[in-house]
Amino acid sequence: xxxxxxxxxxxxxxxxxxxxxxxxxxxxxxxxxxxxxxxxxxxxxxxxxxxxxxxxxxxxxxxxxxxxxxxxxxxxxxxxxxxxxxxxxxxxxxxxxxxxxxxxxxxxxxxxxxxxxxxxxxxxxxxxxxxxxxxxxxxxxxxxxxxxxxxxxxxxxxxxxxxxxxxxxxxxxxxxxxxxxxxxxxxxxxxxxxxxxxxxxxxxxxxxxxxxxxxxxxxxxxxxxxxxxxxxxxxxxxxxxxxxxxxxxxxxxxxxxxxxxxxxxxxxxxxxxxxxxxxxxxxxxxxxxxxxxxxxxxxxxxxxxxxxxxxxxxxxxxxxxxxxxxxxxxxxxxxxxxxxxxxxxxxxxxxxxxxxxxxxxxxxxxxxxxxxxxxxxx
Length: 378
Description:
This protein has helices spanning 28-34, 38-44, 106-109, 193-199, 282-292, 327-330, 355-358; strands at residues 5-7, 17-24, 72-78, 83-90, 96-99, 123-133, 136-149, 152-164, 176-179, 207-211, 220-224, 232-240, 243-244, 247-251, 253-256, 259-262, 267-271, 278-280, 295-297, 300-303, 314-318, 321-325, 331-334, 338-341, 343-345, 351-353, 361-366, 371-377. The chain is mainly beta. It has two domains: 5-211, Beta Barrel (Cathepsin D, subunit A, domain 1); 230-377, Acid Proteases (Cathepsin D, subunit A, domain 1). The protein has a six-stranded mixed barrel. Strands 13-14-17-26-18-25 form a six-stranded mixed sheet. The longest helix has 11 residues, at 282-292. It starts with a strand and ends with a strand. Residues 1-16 form the signal peptide. Shows particularly broad specificity; although bonds involving phenylalanine and leucine are preferred, many others are also cleaved to some extent. GO terms for molecular function: aspartic-type endopeptidase activity. It is an enzyme of class 3 (hydrolase). Belongs to the peptidase A1 family.
């Protein structure tokens, strides 16, 4: 399988798009459902999507969520000769880390591990790294090595080598995380991968873009340094960031059938590829679910699978534009648990526009202008 490719115009090499394909594999939830363990797991390790956005950890230890629904991952390599790893490209965190041979956690035993002794370019940083999860933590240390991302060689990139990992990671297909948020968010002061790409002049523009294919296992991509017109249509709406720490924007309101059901008067939302659902305050999420006809059952908001085509659209009003999600986009269908909505309860004020939203809207993360661009995904 080709994990890295470039799409080039005939005119010049500079027109190449540096892209990494993202695979859509089974989520941890689906694996646990197949094994009949999901209900036990859900109660033991509650879903905590807002953990990584706790402002107390904005500098220092970087919290990340226990998200059993993450499905998209791509392959990078680290070291000389290269050692390959599946990583989640996460716009909600800033560190790169992978499992190491020094980790004996169950989560490490069924994932690829980095072996520093097999890389001629590895250097030990000597600093410890702790990354807090909603249901545990990753501990390890920092090192430097060459990281290959989409054919781009990022030299002397600092990254984390895990020595222990939270239990839920053993059910995830991805080995580690590659964070794409701002450097102020990075644990232990580690410079993020994309910041080094910009500093070293490896990208044509100081931006990257994400396309998540809604229906197929393949077709999703992260594009570094450019925008791929093959993955969107219509105009791009450029939205200024309200906080240059995460990819945070202002949402004016959320409506169902023209009625405001959430964010009346405005709210803050983070565009996050590392969260699967749309997450908001519990009262607002309850209003949305009532508005679309969902009912609460055992921690899920369920709907009749036969009624999806009759369910209303959900519309986010952002920067004077409407971003609409049909029911086919926000309803999750499981062969084990029927149909439920992709809306999750989170913190008091902050929202997360996760993969449920990004699958509908091609997302551009512009560091040069500190903006997010959204356009209708193809």
